[in-house]
Predict the structure of PH domain-containing protein.
Amino acid sequence: MAGVAFGAGIPTTIGVIGGGTGWWVALAFVLPAALLLIGVVVAGDYLRWRGTRYRCTPERLEVAFNLVFHSRKSLPRERIRSVDLTANPLHRLLGVAVLTIGTGQHEESGRSRIKLDPLARADAERLRTELLHRKEKEAAAEAVTDDHVLATLNWQWLRYAPLSFLAPTLGLAAFGALFKVADWFGAQKGVIHWAYERFREFPLVVTILVLLAAALVIGVVGALVLFVEMWWNYRLEREPGGTLRVRRGLLTTRSITVEERRLRGIDLVEPLGNRLAGAARVDAVATGMRQKNDDGKTDYHTLQPAAPLGQAQRVAALVLREPVSPTEAVRLRSHPIAARGRRLRWALVGAALPVLVLVVLGLLLTDVLLIIGAALAVVAFPVAVALAFEAYRNLGHGITGRYLVARSGAVRRSTVALERDGVIGLVVKQSIFQRRKGLATLTATTAAGAGAYSVYDAAPDEALEFAETAVPGILTPFLASPEASAAAERSRA
């Protein structure tokens, strides 16, 4: 909270001083307000800590708050799906950690989770072990050895960090932050004037390319720093008692636990940049696992960061206890040519819309927008066509052993291996355009991971056959002939 108050007070203080009022106004108003805010929050956290009690019995976890208000939560231990530890730098300095207990309910409000903040680090580890149905003595006796370590950080993986879309995003965000800070000091016009003086002798295209190159360099550095912070000391371990544990983090340490009995498969994710470099990351498809952490990030279910494809396949096989990863063992069936046409049409429409907007605005306002629109068209249409062909090549589905496998995506290719026993429903959908082209989309619903995984634009007969083979019995009435269905109805009558 001190950081929040500091971040809010800095621009306010600068704005007051920049307005010519002076330091004494900042000291008289801003500093006391910041101290009051910090004091109120610290007092609130202290009272919450003093009033919170918990108890773990063989059947239930109970958490009670008794101070001004009274509340009590009682959670059956069989409903506990995840127990994770997080410690930011201040927590680590004080020897405490935050324990988050999840029930697997997909609620964004956080009411499906119990958070004990903070606990002594030793108490947090002990409670995590106890809640995961493993006795502390057994855990101590069966210490993790090299045989239990499935993967550790290889610093050569660092080269894949700048190849994601995060790098240009961070670069553009840096320029935005620069203008925001300049605005605090009332120097935004000065920064623009300085940049104009440096580039006024260069053509507009050169100026844009130089700025984009600078943003890319900043983004690459930011992506490297972020990777180091997130994946420092990364270890994927199989612990005694049937749990997978991911430990990582430099400043903020994270410990994420997945019970193997909750695991329903894996998702091999290959963003475009990583795929071109031959890399992929491994995500867990598990019941009761948060798809986002408290910061809104989606890396909470990642078992391994981007690594060489062979390494990712090896880790996937180890996680699933299979000799070969299902995503590697099966030869995927390709999809009809009509699926390629659908992707081409959508890609061309997506590329044409911004070009059309620029052309209209250029005719109404300035010829510069017409030039930008023409340049965008030269780049966008070939890229759109290439991505459409890539998206079609990536379509595929198949079955191997206990798993059904589905692959799709161009910018972000995803190959999911889902346990057939984990499928709770199958949905076959056809839009009016799909019916005209003889295509259908099959969606397998599950209680794990994203909740649904689709086989896009397959031939209807192949989709139904695939569904019947993957989960026999669910779609049998749709596959039987009318005579067989009538006979079945008469026999039931």
User: Anything to note?
Assistant: The longest helix spans residues 23-51. The longest strand covers residues 263-271. The chain is about 50% helix and 25% strand. Residues 411-492 form one domain.
